[in-house]
Every structure is written in structure tokens, then in C-alpha cells.
Design brief:
With 353 residues, this protein is α/β, with parallel strands linked by helices. It has three domains: 61 residues, 434 Repressor (Amino-terminal Domain); 127 residues, Response regulator (Rossmann fold, 3-Layer(aba) Sandwich); 130 residues, Response regulator (Rossmann fold), CATH 3.40.50. The strands form two sheets. A six-stranded parallel β-sheet has the order 2-1-3-4-5-11, sandwiched between helices. Strands 7-6-8-9-10-12 form a six-stranded mixed β-sheet, with helices on both faces. The N terminus is likely disordered. The protein contains 13 helices and twelve strands. Strand 3, helix 7 and strand 4 form a beta-alpha-beta unit.
Length: 353
């Protein structure tokens, strides 16, 4: 009986070896040497991008996955940069906003392509957690420090003092004259102007603005653009057409629904892409048609806008370009100590308006 099970196990191991995809097989598939395959899969710069792409396509098709030998210690390859990039994000309402999550993932992806490792730290709203994170961040010898999202003034000041030369992403920053830092953000006032002008061109007059908390920089900037564009068109601003939320889809749905139930009427809505889902829910569940009864315009350019029905008109804040500009800045040995960059938005008209 023991011999039977031993023989069965040996057969199983042989089959496993037969199913293992070797570098030789990938090399034969691509017409290159096994050494070239090894270098390509380790993403060394000595292999051309064209050859690397062909090797990755063949390895994926064959189902190749590398394994480390038992007991062998994985080593950091010398072609990685010696210092990582540290990314610090702050939660809002228990999570990171979808826009900032997309921005952070794009930054990480581009850094990986440039052979940078990342240290990601996420802090919630608690004082104790922030102090712990600040202590750890200050001990990290990073090539660059990226702050994603909005931090309260005291937290931002503490971060900038601890991490001089930090880069703020999607935050215009606050006046911290004693600190040196860079800002990479968007022109949110112009985003609101584009959206409201578009809705006015669609013959809409009562444009509801659904935005974030009153003290948030994004809410302040889009409200300014909304007010200025309406006033410039000769339309008196109705305070009842401004709704502040916590930036979540659920809160947007609840507050817009309450406004509708209270008798508020409007023929267009400007909000961000994430909250647009909640706006859709409150409108459609009450029998309002989009865009026949109410046109909707989002802001951010998130993939979710294409999935909504009708597809969401949006103002694109190109987070992929912003991420690329940040990486170029990090890679530039002659980069300025302090740099302020604001990307202009672009309107993308779809079915909802």
C-alpha cells in the first residue's frame, strides 16, 4: 500500500514538471535566448521594449509564473532606485475617494515602470493614528514624498515641516510660508465654468450644484465657478440650488431626494462623477427622465461615467496626465525645489445632457 501511494505521488510530481513552463520554451516561442527571456521578465533595461512585449505576450499565453526556490532569499535587484517614493493619503468618511484612488493607482503604476518602490501610508481622521503615521513617515528616507487628497491645516503644516519638499497632489494647498513644497492640481473653477456653460447652452436655467463640504477647497472652487458663470449669463443665483454633501453617492442621493420631496425643482445638475450615481438614483426613482427632464453633468472623468445610463457628460480632470507630470518632476535631477502646476479641464459631452 505504501509503494502504491509513493508511485502515485511520483507520477503527480512528474506531471507537474511537464506542466511547468520553462524559460527555454518561452525563448523558443519568441526566437530569442533563455537569458534574454530572463532579463525581460525581470524587466531589466538591457532588453528592447519591442522584444520585452513579445516575450511577455508569449509568457502570458503559455501561463508562465515564476517561483522562488525553497529556502532561497528573494533579493532586491540593483536596478531599483535605492530610495522609495513615499505616498501619504488621508481617508474621507472612512475611505479614499474614488478619484484619489484612481490617481494614486496611476502614480504607483508609473513609478513601478520607472523602477521605484513605493511606501504607501493611509491615515484616518484620528489624532493618534496621524501621530503614528507622521512618526513613521519622518523616518523614511524617500526620494520624494507625495501627499494625496486634502489634509486639515494643522495636519498639512505638520507634514510639510516633517517632510520638506513634499508634493501635494490635487490640493491647491494652504499658505504655509515657512515650508517649501510643490503643488500639482487642477483648475476646478474652470471645470465649473465649462459645465455650467454647457448646461446653459442646452437651454437649462435652474442648475443645481451638488458638491462637497462647504470648507473643502473643491467645493469652494466649483461654487465660485458656478456663481460667476450664472451671474455672467444674467441669471440670479438661487441659494436653494446649492447642496453640500460628504462627497459620497449615498449622501448625494439622500439630500437631492429630500430636496425633490420638499418641492425644489431644477432642470440640470452639476456634481462630481462619484456623486452623480446618487443623483441618478434620486431622479430616476421619482420618475424624472435624464436628460429630458433634468440634465446631469459630472466632473472628474472617472470610468464609472461610461457605465451609467444614460452615459454621463463630464468635465475631465486628467489624473493620468497629472500623475505623469509628477513622475517627470521626480525623475528630473534639476527639478525646482518648489513648483506649482494646474492642469486645465476638458468637457466631454455624453447622453446625460
Amino acid at each position: 500500500m505504501r509503494y502504491y501511494f509513493y508511485k502515485k505521488e511520483m507520477l503527480r510530481m512528474k506531471r507537474g514538471r511537464k506542466n511547468t513552463i520553462s524559460l527555454d520554451r518561452i525563448a523558443a516561442e519568441c526566437g530569442v535566448s533563455p537569458m534574454t527571456v530572463s532579463r525581460a521578465l525581470r524587466q531589466l533595461p538591457s532588453v528592447s521594449e519591442k522584444t520585452r512585449s513579445r516575450i511577455f505576450a508569449a509568457a502570458s499565453k503559455l501561463g508562465y509564473l515564476p517561483t522562488l526556490n525553497a529556502g532561497r532569499k528573494a533579493q532586491r535587484h540593483e536596478n531599483f532606485h535605492s530610495r522609495p517614493v513615499q505616498i501619504i493619503a488621508r481617508e474621507l468618511n472612512g475611505s479614499i475617494t474614488r478619484f484619489h484612488a484612481e490617481l494614486m493607482l496611476e502614480v504607483i503604476r508609473l513609478l513601478a515602470a520607472k523602477r521605484y518602490e513605493c511606501v504607501v501610508r493611509v491615515t484616518d481622521c484620528s489624532y493618534r493614528e496621524f501621530l503614528r503615521m507622521l512618526s513613521q513617515a519622518g523616518k523614511t528616507d524617500a526620494a520624494a514624498n507625495l501627499l494625496i487628497g486634502t489634509f486639515p491645516e494643522k495636519e498639512l503644516r505638520a507634514l510639510l515641516r516633517t517632510l520638506p519638499g513634499s508634493i501635494l497632489l490635487d490640493d491647491p494647498g494652504q499658505s504655509v510660508p515657512e515650508c517649501v513644497y510643490s503643488i500639482f492640481s487642477f483648475d476646478n473653477v474652470q471645470a465649473a465654468i465649462l459645465a455650467v456653460r454647457h448646461l446653459l447652452e442646452r437651454k437649462r436655467k435652474r442648475i443645481l450644484l451638488v458638491t462637497g463640504p462647504a470648507g473643502h477647497f473643491f467645493a469652494r472652487e466649483v461654487e465660485y465657478g458656478w456663481r460667476e458663470t450664472l451671474s455672467g449669463a444674467g441669471i440670479e443665483v438661487d441659494p436653494s440650488l446649492l447642496i453640500h454633501t460628504d462627497f459620497t453617492s449615498a449622501d448625494a442621493a439622500g439630500k437631492v431626494g429630500m430636496a425633490l420631496d420638499a418641492g425644489l425643482r431644477f432642470d440640470a445638475v452639476f456634481t462630481n462623477d462619484e456623486m452623480a450615481g446618487g443623483v441618478y438614483r434620486s431622479l430616476l426613482s421619482r420618475g424624472f427622465r435624464i436628460p429630458e427632464d433634468v440634465a446631469v453633468c459630472g466632473c472628474d472623468g472617472l470610468p464609472v461615467g461610461e457605465q451609467l445610463y444614460p452615459s454621463l457628460t463630464t468635465v475631465i480632470l486628467d489624473y493620468k496626465t497629472l500623475a505623469r507630470k509628477v513622475i517627470e518632476n521626480i525623475m528630473n535631477p534639476d527639478r525646482a525645489v518648489s513648483m506649482h502646476l494646474r492642469l486645465l479641464p476638458v468637457l466631454l459631452a455624453r447622453e446625460s445632457s
